[in-house]
Amino acid sequence: MRKRYDWESIFNDFASSGLAAKQFCLERNLNYHSFMNKKKSVEKNTNCNSFLPVVISVPSDKISFSFDGHIIEVDSSINDDALCRVINALKSS
């Protein structure tokens, strides 16, 4: 059974590989269904609540912030789940 840090490393390798999940698993001798189940589990349990709330003092239709060297600009109507997916994608890149 793989440990959490093993999966984190595997998912980081997958994110940077540019391969489809099936091809990635085939090349690394991983069970595709186990890979996908674990990936979904990790994504579901990723906690975006560790971020501080953003306070907008000037009305705007865009929100800009910096994250790990990236400047992010999103529509102010973005929902929490979509913003979490953006941030998680940046974390894994």
Short note summarizing the structure:
The protein is of the alpha+beta class. It has helices at 4-17, 21-27, 32-45, 80-92; strands at residues 62-67, 70-75.
How would you characterize this protein structure?
There is one protein chain. With 93 residues, the chain is an alpha+beta fold. It has helices at residues 4-17, 21-27, 32-45, 80-92; strands at 62-67, 70-75. A hairpin with a 2-residue loop joins β1 and β2 (70-75). The longest helix is centred in the N-terminal third of the chain and has 14 residues, at 4-17.
Distance between the termini: 25 Å
The chain-level mean pLDDT equals 78
The radius of gyration computed from the alpha-carbon positions, rounded to a whole number of angstroms, is 16 Å
Q: How would you sum up the major sheet?
A: 2 strands, antiparallel
As a percent range, the share of helical residues equals 40-55%
- The strands making up the biggest β-sheet line up spatially as 1-2
N-to-C SSE string, H for helix and E for strand: HHHEEH
Number of helices: 4
